[in-house]
Amino acid sequence: MSEQNARLRADVCVIGGGPGGLMLGLQLARRGHRVVVVEQSARYKRHFRGESVSPDSVRLLHRLGLMDTIAARGDFARTTRFEISDGGAPALRVDFRDISPDGSLPTEIPQQVLLEVLAEEAARHPGFTLLRRSSVIDLLSSADGRITGARCTGADGPLDIHADLTVGADGRFSSVLELSGLPFSKRPLGRDVLWFKVPLPDAWDDDTVRVRIDRDRHALMLPTHPRSLRVGLNIPKGGLKQVRAQGLAALHGQITAFAPELGPAVRTHLTRWSDLSLLDIFTTSVPRWSRPGLVLIGDAAHTLSPILGQGVNHALMDALALAPLVSRALAAPDRHRQLTAAVTRFQKLREPAVERTRRTQSAQERAFGLASAPAVRVRQQAYRLVDSQPWLKHWLWRRIYYPLRLA
Ligand SMILES: Cc1cc2nc3c(=O)[nH]c(=O)nc-3n(C[C@H](O)[C@H](O)[C@H](O)COP(=O)(O)OP(=O)(O)OC[C@H]3O[C@@H](n4cnc5c(N)ncnc54)[C@H](O)[C@@H]3O)c2cc1C
Fold first, then answer.
1. What is the mean pLDDT of the chain?
2. For the FAD-binding domain, which residue ranges apply (predicted)?
3. Are 350 and 205 found together in one domain?
4. Are residues 303 and 336 in the same domain?
5. d(CA 238, CA 160)
């Protein structure tokens, strides 16, 4: 069958045109390499996907000149403050302007905009090809077990892409991870999240992220562009069926218990179940991100919890760390051996930062899950203690949002 398939040759074949895959494609094409990015969807339009971009990534997007393009389109919203209320009372407030080393702030960039800008920029380089409406169905390998490319189905039928390096950037349900034979484990977390968007209430400013906690339930409220609010309501794991059985009016009641200001907006704009998206929360651990000829990046290598909005950040950081290593290896006479060394080095470079995020998220997940009255009191006291010590608060927040040291 493969003899009949169309064939394409590239230095690098990237599966998945999300933030990680497109940034990697752009960085490699900029360096003069031939890259094919295979993306299953026909359009960039995505609802409820990584809109909060962490300030370190915003700083890098600035350096690459991409933030200017995004800003020129006007499609973004900056966050200056983060507020946690617990049990109806303010518990912790952070102003990012007090901790940012260079004025950069967390920024809400609709993912469609980010992906369009990355793809348009990449398309300026002759070595870059984006194949849309194409899905990977298998990996190609040589007799010695090295991955040599990917078999895809696409608009024009089956296609075999032969490449020195194949990159799995296909997200939290990665087929490449499944096909690679690399061991991995998935850990479901104790809750799911329902996401929806409503207009921002008039009384609310458009640059404060609000987290409201009530015992073991919480809601995240993130102002985004254009003047709207992205809301994530936590529900018990697998609890959507029960939420639906109770009806939309009951859901409106749950939301307004956290934020009475949202009452009119949810009654007007949350009128069908299709207005909601379910995020099934799990994390994935992949002990080895690579094997000869193949490497995983972004969610495919390390699906994280949505807490603190770090998924896009790590996908972009992965791409930016991997590109120069791969570029140098491709220029070497023994490129396959050098590529194997490069992808091993890539994991060594990136894994500590990913693990730091995972630990912080786990601690926060545990705190969110506390239900008994004494445990909730301890959590509230802990938030207030941190809030009362600016040096501690700033140190903790810098570790999460500004770990990158830029020259
Ligand atoms: C509801 C929700 C809200 C989120 N909010 C935030 C947030 O505010 N901030 C944040 O930082 N992160 C957020 N995340 C996480 C964030 O979206 C991801 O961490 C980030 O997009 C990972 O980037 P990626 O490039 O690794 O993968 P993805 O963005 O998932 O991209 C993978 C791409 O691969 C394509 N693909 C999949 N399978 C195949 C296949 N077989 N063949 C070809 N293509 C394929 C997909 O269509 C997709 O375009 C959110 C996630 C969800 C689900």
1. 94
2. 10-329
3. no
4. yes
5. 39
For residue 66, tell me if it sits in a domain: no
Nearest atom, ligand 1, residue 176 CA: 41
Domain ranges, residue 269: 76-109+188-283+370-407
- Please tell me the distance between residue 91's alpha carbon and the centre of ligand 1 in angstroms: 32
Based on the domain organization, do 99 and 133 belong to the same domain?
Answer: no
Domain count, the chain: 2
Q: Scan for tokens 């930016």, then name that residue.
A: 320
φ/ψ (deg, to 5) at 6: -65, 155
Q: How far is the CA of 217 from the centre of ligand 1 (A)?
A: 25
For the CA of 298, the closest atom of ligand 1 is: 26
Nearest CA owner, ligand 1 atom 40: 135
Cα 382 to ligand 1 centroid, rounded to whole Å: 33
Kindly state whether residues 233 and 103 are assigned to the same domain. yes
Cα 373 to ligand 1 centre (Å): 37
- Domain contains 35: yes
Phi, psi (deg, nearest 5) at residue 390: -50, -40
Q: Which atom of ligand 1 is nearest to the CA of 277?
A: 1
Residue 113, CA distances (Å) to 24, 71, 164, 302 in order: 17, 10, 30, 24
Closest ligand 1 atom to 18 CA: 31
pLDDT of the residue at 2:
47
Question: Is 26 found in the same domain as 175?
Answer: yes
Tens digit of each residue's pLDDT (9 = 90 or more) over 115-162: 999 999 999 999 999 999 999 999 999 999 999 999 999 888 999 999
Which H or E run contains 20? helix 19-30
The rounded Å distance from CA 170 to ligand 1 centre is: 7
